[in-house]
Each structure stands twice: as C-alpha cells, then as structure tokens.
Design a protein that fits this description.
Number of helices: 2
Oligomer: single chain
Helix content: over 70%
Order of helices and strands: HH
Mean pLDDT: 80
Low-confidence stretches: none
Structural class: mainly alpha
Number of domains: 1
Length: 64
C-alpha cells in the first residue's frame, strides 16, 4: 500500500515537472521569436564608446 502511494506521488511529481518544463519552453520560444536581433546594436555601440571614454579619462589604477 505504501509503495503504491509512493509510486503515485512519483508519477504526479514527474508529470508536474514535465508540464512546467513544457510551459517554460513554450513561453521561451514565443518570447524569443518576438525579439529582433538588430535593435540593440546601436545602444551597445554607444555604451561601449562611453565605457571606453570613462576608462580612458576617469579610471585610475588601484594602489596595492
């Protein structure tokens, strides 16, 4: 009797995990399909230029 209950619990847990994983994959694919890869490059270019200027003009070497 205890083994049957444990088997049922195990089956329920496995089914729930599979369902949650499937939903996560579905939502992830749906979100990724709506992303345009070309949108962020201009902002990334500006960020890298600003970071370069900050490092060049304002960052000092740390003293040991």
């Amino acid at each position: 009797m205890i083994n049957k209950m444990m088997n049922k619990k195990l089956i329920v847990i496995v089914v729930l995990m599979f369902t949650i994983a499937s939903i996560g994959i579905f939502i992830g694919r749906w979100k990724i399909s709506n992303v345009c890869a070309e949108e962020g490059y201009e902002e990334l270019k500006v960020f890298s230029e600003v970071l370069s200027l900050v490092r060049k003009n304002y960052v000092e070497d740390a003293k040991p």
